[in-house]
TrEMBL record:
InterPro entries: AB_hydrolase_1, AB_hydrolase_fold, Epox_hydrolase-like, Haloalkane_dehalogenase. This is AB hydrolase-1 domain-containing protein. Residues 34-277 form the AB hydrolase-1 domain. It comes from the Bacteria. It comes from Cupriavidus taiwanensis. PANTHER family: BLR6576 PROTEIN, HYDROLASE-RELATED. Keywords: Plasmid. Transmembrane segments: none annotated. It holds the Pfam family Abhydrolase_1. One of its GO terms (molecular function) is epoxide hydrolase activity.
Length: 293
């Protein structure tokens, strides 16, 4: 028996130079279709979207880059890159411009939220819709799992920095994937093994610790993000793993305060909701996109 794969969009991988960096990205779907830009979080990469991209690419052009410091994006040493969220957003904007993306919807997750929302602040006319999957923009959404990082913000000394290194280990990475998941054995282990392996590259641990420290600057931008929601009211889906210890459910509900077009959906899972609720998330995204375009 021959199984036809003609209806399954092929995902291709590419690199493009943007902001002096070789940005790795995954892409699928018709080049003339509306664009969905998927922005990953810590400690993952575009690999987290490996199963979602084909489901969305039947109707949309789906593009998922690896942020600097993550995945397979390469930052030349001569670039002397400073790892801050402002710079991650600057590089992502350069990536968007290199691909000539004039209008696109955003999928923001974890670190992808402060990066993507900076893009929205800078060029609001380009944003057609936003999917926030455990992508925070409110103080309400910060859970107790941030306490060790808060201590680092308040006292950025070597002891508090070193206390965070456990999060960069394989076990610390696995915990982020399985915490709050009803059946942890259902999580594909290659996801957290890949993340952990890439973080073990020379110098990468210091990059991650620098970003932990800089995350405090994202909180300073929350009022600007919220003002953007009030002014522009983009079609928005906040779809949330309700057992996420980092970004807790009140962060999802808070979107409704500023955007009457926000829909909120809770899922019985943890931080990496795509690993357990792929079909439900894909269906919800397609429904949002259908209403937004």
């Amino acid at each position: 028996m021959t199984v036809s794969t003609s209806s399954i969009p092929a995902v291709s991988v590419h690199t493009i130079k943007a902001d002096g960096i070789q940005v790795f990205y995954r892409e699928a779907g018709p080049t003339d279709a509306p664009v969905l830009l998927l922005l990953h979080g810590f400690p993952s990469s575009s690999h987290m979207f490996r199963n979602l991209i084909p489901l969305l690419a039947q109707r949309y052009r789906v593009i998922a880059p690896d942020l600097p410091g993550f995945g397979f994006t390469k930052v030349p040493e001569a670039r002397k890159y400073t790892y801050t969220f402002d710079n991650l957003a600057k590089t992502t904007q350069a990536f968007v411009d290199a691909l000539s993306l004039k209008r696109y919807a955003l999928y923001i997750f974890d670190y992808g939220a402060p990066v993507g929302l900076r893009l929205a602040l800078a060029k609001p006319e380009r944003i057609t819709a936003i999917v926030s999957q455990n992508g925070n923009a409110y103080l309400d959404g910060l859970g107790d799992a941030w306490d060790p990082i808060r201590r680092y913000w308040n006292a950025p000394n070597a002891a508090n920095r070193d206390a965070l290194r456990e999060a960069l280990t394989l076990e610390g990475t696995r915990w982020q994937y399985v915490h709050g998941v009803a059946n942890p054995e259902a999580i594909e282990p290659e996801a957290y093994y890949l993340d952990a392996a890439l973080m073990q590259r020379p110098g990468n641990a210091e990059i991650q610790l620098d970003l932990f420290l800089d995350y405090a600057n994202n909180l300073e931008l929350y009022p600007a993000f919220q003002a953007y929601f009030r002014q522009h009211q983009p079609p928005l889906l906040a779809i949330w793993g309700s057992h996420d210890p980092f970004f807790i459910p009140p962060g999802a509900e808070a979107y409704r305060r500023d955007n009457p077009n926000a829909r909120v959906k809770m899922l019985d899972t943890g931080h990496f909701a795509l690993e357990t609720h792929l079909q439900e998330i894909a269906t919800s995204i397609l429904a949002l996109m259908e209403s937004a375009t």
